[in-house]
Amino acid sequence: MTSRILVMPGDGVGPEICREAVRVLDVLAHDHGLDIELDEALVGGAAVDSAGDPLPEDSLAAAREADAILFGAIGGPKWDSQPRDKRPESGLLRLRSELGLFANLRPAILYSQLAHASSLKKEIVAGLDIMIVRELTGGIYFGKPAGQGTTDAGRREAWNTMRYDEDEIVRIGRRAFEIARARGGRLCSVDKANVLDVSQLWRDVMNELATAYPDVELSHMYVDNAAMQLVRAPKQFDTIVTTNLFGDILSDTAAMLTGSIGMLPSASLDAAGCGMYEPVHGSAPDIAGQGVANPLATILSVAMMLRYTLERGDLADKVETAVGAVLDRGLRTRDIMDDETQVASTQEMGGAIVDML
Ligand code: ATP
Ligand code: MG
Questions:
Q1: Domain spanning 129-257: CATH 3.40.50.2000
Q2: Domain boundaries, the chain
Q3: Fold category of 1-105+262-357 in CATH
Q4: Annotated site (Important for catalysis), which positions (predicted)?
Q5: 129-257 and 1-105+262-357 share a CATH fold
Q6: How far apart (Å, rounded) are the C-alpha atoms in residues 3 and 13?
Q7: Is 224 considered catalytic here?
Q8: Scanning 54, 168, 333, 342, which has the fewest C-beta atoms within 10 Å of its C-beta?
């Protein structure tokens, strides 16, 4: 069956990096029997400029019909002074909630070839390979009641509610157990069950689910300890599952341990396995239009798309192997450069992956 892929390039470096990822999809379709149909839609600042809306109705309709979305990046200084509903970011938040993308997958991997790259920070951890599964549509960001007001004594006050029902925990838990099973077989659930009732429910449901996955070793960790362990000894982790708020913080922490923002992909999946795939980095307005952005985060997002939506793990492996082989050859964009390697443009890097495939 033909899979429909919608490309939403967005702003800044988004169009440049998506162009290279689309070349990868094209070569897989042409030479490796991948059955896809590609379409493109406006989102973010580009959509504000041409349609006055960061997520125009026809873009949302196209997104609903797609099996998978390849998303570039959105935003930039040009739109920072817009009212909130006309900000590029509100288009992305709306897309996530309209499509019910409740499972956010953030691998933190440092390719061994980059362990000594002089352009990367010194804190990087060679050989790191963690998958963080973050619940994306519930928890304190969405729980009711939420609001602000005034106390009887006349002081300003504000409140948010961390709320999960068991179905929400079951669906993210199942997804995490399945991912852990396909990886190293170890799942660490992160919560704050010593203080929060909602965390105790989270922990109970994870324990109940564990009986259906006897081949996965489940452990629990309080979030404060998890933050410490992630920095102290990050290689102890295989797959981590956690709530929206804790996952927001821990996934950025883990990303920084790799030091290579231009290399990190992500996926956000719905209940049926349809999803949106995008680089972790933003629109990088400081380098947009210069042809120097690293396209590998987006190309690795295509690999995740192949694995999690298109059910072509074989091709996902091929793409990831091609990325490793191109790094082995010494090709580097500016952000991952070191002294002995060859500097490649966005297009040269994409072309090298295409040639390798
Ligand atoms: P956002 O708020 O959209 O997340 P941000 O300001 O937090 O944006 P990015 O847009 O990700 O961050 O950029 C952070 C830094 O990393 C910038 O200096 C940018 O040039 C660099 N950067 C981001 N993506 C890439 C890439 N693909 N290749 C090279 N450098 C990148
Ligand atoms: Mg940011």
A1: no
A2: 1-105+262-357, 129-257
A3: Isopropylmalate Dehydrogenase (3.40.718)
A4: 141, 192
A5: yes
A6: 26
A7: yes
A8: 342
Residues 310-347 pLDDT 10s: 999 999 999 999 999 999 999 999 999 877 778 999 99
Compute the distance between CA of residue 223 and CA of residue 244 in angstroms, rounded to an integer: 12
DSSP 187-249: EEEEE-TTT-HHHHHHHHHHHHHHTT-TTSEEEEEEHHHHHHHHHH-GGG-SEEEE-HHHHHH
Q: Is 336 in the pocket of ligand 1 (CB under 6 A)?
A: no
Verify whether residue 122 is a known catalytic residue.
no
**Known active-site residue 248:** yes
ipTM of the complex: 0.94
| Catalytic pick among 26, 129, 141, 270 | 141
Q: What is the pLDDT of residues 205-254, one digit of tens each?
A: 999 999 999 999 999 999 999 999 999 999 999 999 999 999 999 998 99
| Catalytic choice (31, 165, 167, 252) | 252
